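Bumping my old thread because nobody answered last time. Still need a sequence for this structure:
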């Protein structure tokens, strides 16, 4: 491709709303342009890199035996009502109506569509298992789209869905997808961290995320230096610890009855610790949560969540425990109605207007302090199990750096990360609600089970830039660069034109993605653009060096002089060596 025939408008400064490196560089290098809030369009240069990422994903999934399909982006609401997610997905799902008044969905994900498309065709166990996938447009009406294509409203995702006879099939499909993911990200030059994760609104179990470390990551990763334990903070678990008393020793059970004590103007854990001359571990903190669309039977819309005073509630764990679409702290007025007290005095003892959920640490506490369900009153000598019985007990604590690994006893640390891919074992969540059945080997009607496997294509592209850039611009990996080589004549005329054309033609003939910068621009402009866009190899043809040319790799500080007649061969050798390394 000749640059004079290729539209690519670079910027010297990034737009004010671009705050992370990938967003800034994609805008400055002319890869994308903003069409609206959270809506970015790929320009020709950006689309070339996007297709490289997309094709690596496609090639590896095809090698893994998966089958590509293309469902529609606009879907009938009926299939979402079948699955039960029409109401549960919330305001992120765009719900237009067609001219006939039929409710429709702009696809935010595709479990329903794939299940609806294959269920009528699958009749026998002999047709299972198989995995189908799409690389297609999605739309989620993000409340705060940010970071360019990293979190836009419209985006492209690869979704794969396995349809399996039994758990053994699902386990094999899951491992097949995980292996394909590792190959995909390696080919792109990305180092990923595989972490245990929350399944969120998708449901199911056996969830794993593929993360890249990022200073601006949306996710916090909990990692153990002593073993391979890695988890998203939403899912992370730690070794059980024992609550200590003010003397630093394990708490001891009391036979004393619950007693009210006045605590005027004292409501926070810190204030109580000072007032009672004890530590936060002596307190049972009680928070009232509103629950939306729970999957377990509750008495009302609120629950009281109890946790040790030095810990915090993990709302993702709570949401998963209740199989809810969302949980959020109750408004002050609702807290007053449920506890008959101002905020700060809630407690589980004698609480009747909300069911109690206790973090498992609470049930190992003794002689504890709780809110007294009255203003300026707390209870002391509370024994969990004796003085209150939870509706549910589970791990709902936030795990933090410094907590202890449950697998090896190491001390956790944390990093920020961005999710590139996510895999789930969905089980029968969708096949059961949408009636996807088959006849098993004994002729019995049986419900199929599913796995779900996704990769954010835009986010992966942005993450490559986040991982590979410097102060001058992008530093593409060879497998994802829009053009692998740029031939840059200082001036496109006379001998420089002749030599540049010859090198360009040799590279084209060898199948190299090459651009010839034949623009009538100053050399400095061409060099700046080449660094900004990030071509892995730049060959500069100038009168001063002929019959030699400068060959500079983007990742190297200095260029090298090579004979012009050998320049194409040298570039081809570098390209192939880099690709071999990534593809190994």
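Sorry it took so long. Here it is:
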């Amino acid at each position: 491709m000749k640059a004079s025939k290729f539209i690519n408008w670079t910027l010297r400064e990034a737009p004010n709303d671009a705050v992370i490196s990938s967003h800034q560089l994609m805008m400055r290098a002319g890869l994308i342009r903003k069409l609206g809030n959270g809506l970015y369009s790929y320009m020709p240069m950006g689309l070339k890199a996007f297709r490289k990422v997309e094709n690596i994903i496609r090639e590896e999934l095809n090698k893994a035996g998966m089958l590509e399909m293309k469902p529609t982006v606009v879907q009938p609401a009926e299939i979402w009502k079948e699955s039960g997610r029409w109401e549960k997905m919330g305001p992120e799902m765009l719900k237009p109506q067609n001219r006939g008044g039929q409710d429709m969905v702009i696809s935010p994900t595709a479990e329903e569509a794939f299940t609806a498309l294959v269920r009528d065709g699958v009749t026998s166990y002999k047709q299972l298992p198989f995995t189908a996938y799409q690389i297609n447009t999605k739309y989620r009406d993000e409340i705060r789209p940010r970071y360019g294509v990293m979190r836009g409203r419209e985006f492209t995702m690869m979704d794969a869905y396995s349809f399996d006879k039994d758990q053994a099939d699902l386990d094999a499909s899951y491992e097949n997808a995980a292996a394909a993911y590792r190959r995909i990200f390696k080919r792109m030059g990305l180092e990923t961290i595989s972490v245990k994760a929350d399944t969120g609104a998708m449901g199911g179990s056996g969830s794993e995320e593929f993360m890249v470390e990022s200073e601006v990551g949306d996710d916090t990763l909990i990692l153990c230096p002593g073993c391979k334990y890695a988890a998203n903070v939403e899912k992370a678990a730690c070794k059980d610890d024992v609550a200590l008393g003010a003397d630093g020793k394990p708490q001891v059970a009391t036979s004393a009855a619950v007693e009210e004590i006045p605590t005027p103007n004292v409501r926070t854990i810190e204030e109580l610790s000072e007032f009672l001359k004890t530590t936060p571990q002596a307190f049972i903190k009680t928070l009232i949560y509103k629950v939306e669309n729970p999957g377990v039977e509750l008495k009302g819309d609120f629950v009281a969540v109890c946790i040790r005073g030095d810990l915090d509630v993990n709302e993702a764990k709570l949401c998963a425990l209740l199989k809810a679409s969302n949980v959020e702290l109750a408004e002050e007025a609702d807290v007053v109605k449920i506890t008959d007290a101002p905020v700060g005095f809630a407690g589980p003892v004698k609480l009747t207007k909300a069911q109690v959920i206790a973090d498992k640490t609470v049930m190992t506490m003794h002689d504890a302090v709780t809110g007294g369900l009255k203003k300026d009153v707390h209870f002391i000598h509370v024994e969990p199990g004796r003085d209150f019985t939870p509706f549910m007990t589970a791990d709902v604590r936030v795990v933090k750096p410094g907590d202890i690994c449950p697998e090896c006893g190491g001390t956790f640390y944390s990093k920020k990360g961005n999710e590139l891919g996510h895999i789930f074992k969905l089980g029968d969540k969708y096949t059961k609600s949408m009636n996807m059945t088959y006849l098993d080997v004994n002729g019995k009607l049986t419900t199929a089970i599913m796995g779900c496997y996704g990769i954010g294509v835009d986010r992966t592209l942005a993450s490559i830039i986040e991982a590979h850039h410097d102060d001058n611009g992008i530093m593409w990996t060879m497998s994802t660069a829009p053009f692998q080589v740029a031939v840059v004549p200082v001036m496109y005329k006379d001998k420089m034109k002749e030599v540049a054309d010859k090198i360009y033609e040799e590279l084209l003939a060898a199948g190299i993605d090459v651009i010839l910068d034949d623009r009538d621009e100053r050399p400095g402009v061409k060099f700046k653009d080449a660094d900004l866009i990030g071509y892995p190899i730049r060959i500069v043809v100038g009168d001063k060096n002929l019959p030699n040319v400068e060959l500079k790799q983007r990742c190297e500080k200095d260029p090298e002089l090579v004979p012009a007649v050998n320049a194409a061969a040298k570039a081809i050798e570098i390209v192939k060596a880099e690709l071999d390394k990534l593809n190994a």
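The chain has 14 helices and 30 strands. Let me know if any region looks off to you.
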